[in-house]
TrEMBL record:
Keywords: Isomerase, RNA-binding. It comes from Candidatus Magasanikbacteria bacterium CG10_big_fil_rev_8_21_14_0_10_36_32. Coiled coil: none annotated. CDD domains: PseudoU_synth_RluA_like, S4. This is Pseudouridine synthase. Residues 16-78 form the RNA-binding S4 domain. The active site is at D151.
Amino acid sequence: MAATKKIIVNEKTAGQRLDIFLSEKLKTTRSQAQKMIEFKQIMINNQLPKKAGEKLDLNDIVFVKTQKEKKVVPSHQRQTIKPLKKFSINDIIIVADMPDYIIVDKPAGILTHSLPNNKEESIASILSKKYPQLKKVGDSPERPGIVHRLDRDASGLLIVAKNNKMFECLKEQFKNRTIEKEYWALIHGKMEADWAELNFPLGRSKRGERMAARPFTIKGLENDAGGKNALTELWAEKKFINFTLLRVKIHTGRMHQIRAHLLAYNHPLVGDSVYFQKKRKHVWDEKLGRLFLHCYLLSFKDLQGNKQNFESLLPTKLKEFLKIIK
C-alpha cells in the first residue's frame, strides 16, 4: 500500500540537487534516489521533476511515495554475516599516482565509496585521508573523485580523479562509452559458444533489491517492460566440466550489469549470493567466499588526449581456485 511523505526545502537545502537531497533525507544511495525519480515516485510541488539533477528552491515541497510494509533488508546488504574486515591504505594497491588521477587495484571485500547510512571504510574514504584534495572533487562528498565503481566482493582496477577537470573528462568518456573495461569472470556451467553477446535491457526487479534482465526475466524478477539498454560481450577462455572462465567486456555501465546478464544467460557468476538460481547454488560459491569477478583492464584518455592503458593480474585467491575446480 502506497503512502506519501512530504519534505519541505529549507534554507540549508535550497539550491541542492534533487537526487542528493533525497539521498540525505531518505538515508539512501544517490543511485537509488535517481531510480525513485525515474519510477515517478517523486514530485516537487505536485509536479514530476524533469531530471535527477533539478535544483530545489526554498519552500519547495517534495513528495515521496513509499510503501507501507515490513522493512526488508536488501539482499545485497545481508549476503555476509561474518564481521567485515577493517581495511586501511596498506590493503590498497596504488598502481599509478599521476598529477590528475590515481589508479587503484581494489581488493574484494571493500566498498568503492561509503553509503549515507553506512560509515564503514571504503576506497574513497581511505584515499581521502592520503589525498585530502580529493574531498573537493566530484558530485558528492560521499564519493570524492569516484567516477565508476566495483561491487564490494569484486576486485580490480578503479580510476579516481584528483581534480574536477579530470573528473569531468572521465565522466564525459563514460557517458560517451569510450572508456574500455574488461573483466575475468568464472561462471557456473560449460558455455557452449566461444563468444556471446548479451544485448537486452536491465531494470529494477519487482522487489527493488536487484536488477532484472528484460524481457528475459528469471522467476522472482518479473516486472513491467522497460529498463535501460545494456550490452555485454563474453569470450570463453577456458572450459571446465562444470565451469567456464570468461573474458568479459561491457559496452554500457549499468548497475550489476555483468551479474544480472549472466544470471539471465543461465550461467550465474561463481560466488554470487544475490544473482543466483537456488537449484544451482553450489558449495563452490561458499568455498570461494567472494565474487569471481576481476577488472583486469582499464583504458581511457588523459587530459592531454593521450590513451592510457592499465592491467591487473588475477588475484592469488582466484588463481588458486581455478586449480581446484573441475
